[in-house]
Amino acid sequence: MAIDYNINPQRDLDDGTYASLPGTTPGEFVQYNATPMKARMRKDAEGCHPSRWIQELLNNNFTTCDLFDRARAAKLNTPYTWHHTHRLTINGNQSFCTNTTRVLSSVCLDCHFHFVFKMAWEEQHNSQVCSPRHARWPVRDAQFPWHHLVWAGSDTEMNLVKENSKYYPILAREYFVCSAPPCTFQVTLEVSEPRMASWWIDLLLDHDTIRQNLRLAKEQDPERYAVATDDWAEQAPMNLNTYLKNLLEATSPEKPRSISKRNKRFSVLFGPRCFSIFRELEFEETVDEQDGIDGGSFTPPLPSPPGGPTGATEIGTYRGFVEDIRSEVQCIIHRSGEPAELCTPGLHADLGCVEVNNTNDSHLVNIRRYTLLGVLPNQPKEIVVNAYKRQWELLPNKRKELIDALMGIANDLNDEQLADYAATQSSVFDSQLPTQSNTDDDGVVSEALAFLGLQPPNKYNAETLVAAFRQKLSQEPKMANSARQMLLLIAQSSTDDTYQAILLMEANGKMSVATAKAVLGMKEDGSLGPEVVAAARTKIELSNDKEEKATYLDALEAIADLTNAMDLKQLVATQRQENGIEIPKGSAVPDASGRPANYDLPVGLENIGNTCYLNSLLQYLFTVKPVRDIALNYENFKLELNDESIKQRLLGGNKMQMDRGEAVVAQAFAQELSDLFNNLETSDKVATRPSQRLANAVLLSTHTLLNDSKSAEPVAGPKPPPLPTRPPPEPPVKSSGDVEMANGAVKEERDPVETASTVSSQTLVEDLSDHSYEKVEVPSTATDDQTTDTVMALGESDSPAETVRPTLKSTETSETIIKGANGTANEEQDADVSMGNADEPQTVDHKVLTALEHQKRSSGTDQQDVEEVMGSILNRLQAAIRPSSIDESTGIQLEKIMETFFVTTINYTKKFDDKTYQKEISFDRSITAFPAPEGSCSLYDALGRNFDQQIIEESKLSRYTAIKTLPPVLHVLIQRSQSMGSKNGNPVEIPETLYLDRYMDAPHDSPTFQQRVQSWAVASRISDLKAQKARAEAVIPTGPFLESCGEEEPTPVVNSAWGEDDTMEDGVLDFEENWDFDGPVVDDFLLVSHPTNGPSPTTTVPVKPQGIEPTERSVREMMSNELRQREEDLEKHHAGLKNIPYRLHAVICHRGQLMSGHYWVWIHDFEQDVWRKYNDSNVDVKRNTDEVLATLSTSGEPYFLCYVRDEDKDAYVNVPRRQRPEQTTDADGDVVVTNNEPTPAAENTQDFSPPFGPQRND
C-alpha cells in the first residue's frame, strides 16, 4: 500500500534525526499535554497505530486490552456467536461530529453486537492533535503524524451495572488514549448486547409457520387472499423494518397510526405468535373480540425528537432503542443477500489513518515484531517509525527489542531508507556511554535500571539517571521509596565519586526542588500557584495509597521550604497528620507515634523497614484471645528455661525437640509481644512502633542469630515482601506414582521450631523442596505382611483397630503420618539441629540476645510471605510456653496454640483396582484454596481444588482430602503463587459465613460419603460441560455456510419487496418505504414491492443442505440446559450442608507482583459490627460488610483468610478497646484537660506569598 505524503523523494540525510535515539534529538522541544485519561495508562502498556487497533478490534484480538478475554469468560445469551471478523455498519441517526467530539455508532451485520466509538480532544490543544499532514521523512521527535492508541483501562463493573438497561444493555466500556505527548485525543469504546433476543429472530425467520398461516388463510378466505404469494414467508423482517421506519419518521402524536391485528399481511406474517414482539417494542395493545376474532390493534408510542448534538439521536433513549432494533432487522435483511455499506472506512478516517487491505490473509500480522511496534504489514516507513518512537516512550524495558523489531520490519518492506535508519538506531544504542557499574554479577543494577525505565547495561550519565528517577516519580508517585532505593543501588555500584555524589544527593534526604516540580507537573521555570496546590490536594484526596500521598506532600514541602511559605508548610503538616504519613528526615513535624490519638480507633503499627506483612499479622493476632492471653499473662504460661524443661518440650504433631538457642529466642519474642500488646491497649498515640528485636525474633532463624558475627552484612535497603515463590502445596493432580513411605531423616538447616507443627513450605530461593508433604515410615514391629502406624488420635471416634493394617490389598484402611519439614521420629533428629551442648548456656543466651538487638535482616528474609511468617510466630509462641496436656495415645503435647489454630486433615489415596483407601494424617496450621486458572470462582470452588476427588490417570490413582477435626480459628491460605513464578490474581468470592460440612471426613460406607461421591461426579461433569461449551463458542457455526453452498448470487424472488432499482445509502435501505400503517380491514393488504413492467424472472433453486444450523443450535442449547440443571442440582445438595458454620474474622491482603508489593489486613469487629482496615500506621473504618466483601471478592488481593467457628467467636476473638487515660488533677484539685484532638486543617491563608494564595471569587 502506498500513501503520497508529498515527501521529497530524495533521501534526507538528517544526521541529527538518524543518529539520535527517540527523545534525544538536540534542539527539539516536545510539549506534554497531560489529560486525566493519559494518567490512567498503566506502566509498560503497549500501544498501536489506529489501523492495527481497528484490525484487532474487528478480529476480537486486542494485544493489550483484555476486553475479549473477559467476553470469552462471560456467559452471554445472544442470538449469534461473536467469534468472527466483525462487519460494522452505521446504526441509525446516532453518529455526529462537533469541534471537540466525534461519535460513530455501529452494529455488526453478523452478530448484532453494537460498537459505539466516542472520540474527544481538548479544544485548546486542537492544533497539537496528531495529523497525517505532519508526515515527512525522516520522522522527527517533534512530529506526530498519527495517533498511537494505548489502553487506559475499563469502566468499573458497578458503573456498568447501574447504566445497563433495556434501552442500552452495555457490556463494556474501554478507554484508549493517544500516547503522543502533545496530543489530547482519546477514544471510548462501548460494546453492548443485541437488542433483539433470539426468540424475536426465530419468529421473524420462521418461514414454515408463515407458509402454514398463509395456507390456512387462503383456505378460510380464498377471495381475500387471492393475490397473496408464497414470497410472503420471507418478508416479515421487511415489514417490521417499515413499521419502525414510519414510527421514527412520525411527527404528530395527534393521529397515531395503528396496526390492525386483522390486516391480511400482519395476521399472516406476525399474528398472535408475534404479539410479544410488539409488546416489547412498547406498542399499546387493544383487544376487540367479535365472534371469537380479535379485531384490536397495536398503537406505537411517539418517540421524543432527537436531542443530541447536530440533531443526532441520544443513545439509551426510546428513540435510540427503536433505531437499534431497526438496524438489527436490517442486518437480517442484508444477510439474505442485499448489499450493505460498511462504516469501517469512516472509522479509519475518524482515527486519522487508512485501511490496510488483506491483513487477515497475511501471516505476518501477528508476528511479534508487528505486535510489539503496533503496526500492520506493508504500512509505510513513516508509520513504522512513528509507532517505534511512541513505543520507545512506553516500553523503556524493551528498547533493544524494539530496535530489533524495527530492523525486521525494514527487511520485510525491503526499504533501504528504513533499513539505514534502523541500523543507525541500533549502532547508536549499542555505543552509548561506557558502563558506569564496576560489577553487576547478581543483576541488581540491571533490575534497578529496568525499574527506572532504562535498558541495561548502565551506560547512562548521572543526569540521565536523575531524569529517569524524576520521571518515575511523576508517573508512579507511590513507588518513590523503591525508586530511591534503586538509585542508591546504582550509585553504590559506581567507582566515580562525582557520579555517586550526584545520585546520592538526589536519593538521600529531602526531595529536591526540581524533583518536586516534576512530581507536581510543573515546568522547571514555572511558579507554584494556587491551582497547583489545589490539584495536589485533589490527588491526595483521591489517592488510596499512602506512599503516593506522601510523595505529593514531600513535593509540596520542598516548594514550601524554597519559598518559605508558612501556610503551605502547615498544610503539609496537617495533611500528613490526617493521613497517618511518617515524617521524612529533616522535617520538624512529629511522626505518627507522636500524634494524638482517636480513642475510638485501635492503635496502628509503624513500618520499621519492610514489615507491613508482620504488622498485619500482629494486628490480627492481637484480636485472637488465646494469643493475647499468652502475651499479656506470659508468666502463667512460660516454659522454664532449664535444660530439663527444654529437653522434655516436644513441639507440634511430629514432636520436635528444640535446643537452648531456640528457647531463648522464643522467650525473647514472647516478652516483646507482651510489651507490644500492652502498648496497643494503652497507647495515647495514633500508632506505636514494634521493636526491631521483636521483628528479628520472628523473621530471623536461630541459626542466623547464632552466626551473627560471621554472616551479618549491610544491605542497600529492603525490598517489599513477596508472595511465596514456592510451588503451591500440591493442588489436586500432582502425584506421579504410587504413594510410598520414605525412609530416613530429612536433613535441613532451618530451625525445628519453624517447621515443627505445620506443613508450611520452603521458598524457591532456598532451593529446597517442600518437605512438609514427605512421608516418613514409622518403625514397626509387625509381621512382614502387616505394618503398624502411629495414629494422631484426637477424637474419641478413633478406633484402636485403625492402627493395624495389612498390605495395600487389605480391606482395612491403611494410614501413615505426614511429618513436618524437619520431621523425623523422636530421637532421629538431625545432629545439626541439636545444639544444646555446643556452647555453655550463658554463652548461647548472650549471643542470641545480642544478635536480636543488632542483627540486620538481609534480603533472604524478605522472601518470606505471610503464611510463613504466621508459622514462625506460632512456632515461637509454642516454643515459649509449656504444654497444658499430653495426648496419651500419640504423646503429642497440646497447648493453646495447637488447640486454637491447628486443623487435622486426612489425605486418602487409592489405586484403581483397590477397594480401600490408604490414608495419611497431618496437623496443619491452615488449609489451602486454589484460585481458578482463568476468571473468578467461589471460595468453595477454590477449596474444592484441594479437597475434592482427583483422578490421576498416569498413576492410576484417585485421591481426595478430608478434614478430621477443626480448630476454633481456621486459617485459609489462597495460594496465588504459580509454578512459573507468576502470581494468580484471579478473584475469589469470599463468603461471610463459610460452611465446611462438605469437606469433613466421613466413613466410606456412610450415606454422607456416597452423596459426596455423587457431588464430585456432578462437579466434574460441570467442569467438562464448561470446557466443551467454551470450545464450541470459540468456533464459528458451520450451519449457515453449509446451507448456503451453491448460492453464488442472490436469487430473485417473485413479488419480492426488492426491485432491481433498489439502492443502499449509508447502510440504510433507500427504497420507497411508503407502506402506511394498517387501517380498517377493508383497506385490504399492504403492497411491499415496487410495481414491475413485466413478469419477474424465476430461477431454479439448487438443492442445498437443510437443518444443519438448527442442529448446531440445538446441541448448544442442550449443553447450556444440562449445565444449568447440573449447577442447580449441585447447589441444592450444598444448600443442605450448613451445620458447621465459620464466620469471617480477618482478611490479609497483598497488592503487587510475586516478588514485591504491600500487605494490609481487614478485621471484623463482631461487637460493633464494623470492619477496620489496618494499613501500618493507618486504621480506617468501614461499616458496610457487603461493600467490604464486594471489594475483597472482585480483586486478586485477598491472600490469607481467618475464620472463626460461629458459636465460638465471642470466646476466641474480639477487638480490644483502647484504654483511655485516667483524668488527673492539679494542686488545686481541678481536672487537667488534655487536648487529644487532631490538629484542624489550616483555613487561614493570609500568610501565603502571592503565588500560593487562593483565588477569591467575590
TrEMBL record:
<feature type="compositionally biased region" description="Pro residues">
    <location>
        <begin position="717"/>
        <end position="732"/>
    </location>
</feature>
<keyword id="KW-0833">Ubl conjugation pathway</keyword>
<feature type="compositionally biased region" description="Basic and acidic residues">
    <location>
        <begin position="768"/>
        <end position="777"/>
    </location>
</feature>
<dbReference type="InterPro" id="IPR038765">
    <property type="entry name" value="Papain-like_cys_pep_sf"/>
</dbReference>
<feature type="region of interest" description="Disordered">
    <location>
        <begin position="1041"/>
        <end position="1060"/>
    </location>
</feature>
<dbReference type="InterPro" id="IPR018200">
    <property type="entry name" value="USP_CS"/>
</dbReference>
<keyword id="KW-0645">Protease</keyword>
<dbReference type="Pfam" id="PF00443">
    <property type="entry name" value="UCH"/>
</dbReference>
<dbReference type="InterPro" id="IPR028889">
    <property type="entry name" value="USP"/>
</dbReference>
<dbReference type="InterPro" id="IPR044635">
    <property type="entry name" value="UBP14-like"/>
</dbReference>
<protein>
    <recommendedName>
        <fullName>ubiquitinyl hydrolase 1</fullName>
        <ecNumber>3.4.19.12</ecNumber>
    </recommendedName>
</protein>
<dbReference type="InterPro" id="IPR001394">
    <property type="entry name" value="Peptidase_C19_UCH"/>
</dbReference>
<feature type="region of interest" description="Disordered">
    <location>
        <begin position="1216"/>
        <end position="1258"/>
    </location>
</feature>
<dbReference type="Pfam" id="PF13446">
    <property type="entry name" value="RPT"/>
</dbReference>
<feature type="domain" description="USP">
    <location>
        <begin position="603"/>
        <end position="1206"/>
    </location>
</feature>
<dbReference type="GO" id="GO:0070628">
    <property type="term" value="F:proteasome binding"/>
</dbReference>
<dbReference type="GO" id="GO:0043161">
    <property type="term" value="P:proteasome-mediated ubiquitin-dependent protein catabolic process"/>
</dbReference>
<feature type="compositionally biased region" description="Polar residues">
    <location>
        <begin position="1233"/>
        <end position="1248"/>
    </location>
</feature>
<dbReference type="GO" id="GO:0016579">
    <property type="term" value="P:protein deubiquitination"/>
</dbReference>
<feature type="region of interest" description="Disordered">
    <location>
        <begin position="708"/>
        <end position="788"/>
    </location>
</feature>
<dbReference type="GO" id="GO:0061136">
    <property type="term" value="P:regulation of proteasomal protein catabolic process"/>
</dbReference>
<feature type="region of interest" description="Disordered">
    <location>
        <begin position="289"/>
        <end position="312"/>
    </location>
</feature>
<keyword id="KW-0788">Thiol protease</keyword>
<keyword id="KW-0378">Hydrolase</keyword>
<dbReference type="GO" id="GO:0004843">
    <property type="term" value="F:cysteine-type deubiquitinase activity"/>
</dbReference>
<dbReference type="InterPro" id="IPR025305">
    <property type="entry name" value="UCH_repeat_domain"/>
</dbReference>
<feature type="compositionally biased region" description="Polar residues">
    <location>
        <begin position="755"/>
        <end position="764"/>
    </location>
</feature>
